[in-house]
Design brief:
With 198 residues, the chain is of the alpha+beta class. The protein has two helices and two strands. A two-stranded antiparallel ribbon has the order 1-2. Helix 1 packs antiparallel against helix 2. 10% of the residues are buried.
């Protein structure tokens, strides 16, 4: 750590720094709390979407057992794009899932079983759930990175900057107090010498 100057200007500078740190710290703490809250909300949302996906999958398992034909539906499903918006949470840009769009794939309805339409819809729903879960996980990753940085800043201010600045102020005040006391003593000694001489 660099040595501090023991001057009144440095004392003022240190006091200004302390005020700035103490004014900025509550904002950082609030941001940290907001990020933690939003991460918990996103984790709950992931759990909800996973539960919906698992329910759909369970219902499909029964359905597949009934219509046990071995038909591969994957060539009939082409994902066109994932539509996402951008959101902002505590200064962090995050993706927000809108929908998953599919390209229309033609197939012969006379050669396919009747349940294919319903099966395609179910697979599209599962794919949409999977895409939403991926976007939510990306949100958690981005928010987690920002939370880590914010936590480091909070710790820097709480455990380093503010205590060091307070200690610097204390040292400067002690030094300036000692200098002032020494000046008063020198003044009295000089006055006593002048009185003795006259």
């Amino acid at each position: 750590m660099a040595a501090i100057k023991l001057t009144k200007n440095e004392l003022k500078s240190q006091k200004d720094d302390l005020k700035r740190f103490q004014r900025y710290l509550p904002t950082l703490i609030l941001k940290k709390q907001q990020l933690q809250m939003v991460i918990r909300q996103v984790e709950v949302k992931i759990k909800e979407v996973e539960d919906l996906r698992n329910k759909l999958y369970s219902s499909l398992q029964i359905w597949i057992a009934v219509y046990g034909e071995d038909i591969d539906l994957t060539p009939l499903i082409k994902i066109e794009r994932i539509l996402k918006d951008r959101g902002n949470i505590a200064g962090v840009d995050i993706p927000v899932f809108n929908e998953l769009t599919f390209a229309v794939v033609e197939y012969n309805i006379f050669t396919m079983p009747l349940w294919v339409d319903k099966g395609l819809e179910a697979i599209k729903s599962m794919a949409a759930f999977d895409a939403e879960i991926e976007v939510l996980k990306e949100q958690i990753r981005l928010l987690g990175d920002e939370l880590r940085v914010t936590t480091q800043r909070v710790n820097l201010f709480e455990k380093v900057k503010i205590p060091v600045t307070k200690e610097n102020i204390r040292k400067i005040q002690i030094y300036l107090g000692d200098q002032q006391t020494a000046a008063v003593v020198r003044g009295k000694m000089a006055k006593n010498k002048i009185v003795k001489v006259s």
